[in-house]
Amino acid sequence: MAAEANNLAPWTAVPEDCAPHVRRYLTGLAYRSDLDLVAREASAYARAAAAEHAGGAWVFDVDETLLYNLPYYAEHGYGLELFDHREFDKWVEKGEAPAIPSS
C-alpha cells in the first residue's frame, strides 16, 4: 500500500499515535523499497512507450516525484504538524532537497 498522509481525508495531520510508525516507514527500508519499485515500474512503462512512440519526449515536474524532501518532513514531525505551505515553500527555495536515487 502506498499513500501520502495528506491524501487520507479527513485527517489534517498524522494522528499522534501514528507518528512513530510513519517515521519508521519513511526512514526505513520499506520506503526505499517502495521508491525503487515505483521507479522500476515507471521505467518499464517508459521503455514500452518509447518503443511504441519513437521520438517522443518525457517532461517531469521536479517535485516529490524526483526529489527527496524527507529532511523537511523530519523537521516537522513526519506529518504530525499541520502542513504549512509557506514553510514548505521556504524549504523548496533553499534548493537542498537531494535527488531520490532510484528516480
Which fold name fills CATH's third level, the topology? Rossmann fold
How many β strands by DSSP?
A: 0
Helix content: 40-55%
**CATH superfamily (homologous) name:** HAD superfamily/HAD-like
- Which CATH top level class fits? Alpha Beta
Number of helices in the DSSP assignment: 4
Q: What is the average per-residue confidence, as pLDDT, rounded to a whole number? A: 84
Description:
By secondary structure, the protein is an all-alpha fold. It has one domain (5-94): Rossmann fold. The chain is 48% helix and 0% strand. The protein has helices spanning 19-27, 29-52, 70-75, 85-94. The radius of gyration is 16 Å and the shape is globular. 4% of the residues are buried. The model has no long low-confidence stretch (mean pLDDT 84).
Task: Kindly summarize this structure in a few lines.
With 103 residues, the protein is mostly helical.
Features:
Rossmann fold, 103 residues, 4 helices, globular, mainly alpha
Sequence-ordered SSE layout with sheet pairings:
Layout: H1 19-27, H2 29-52, H3 70-75, H4 85-94
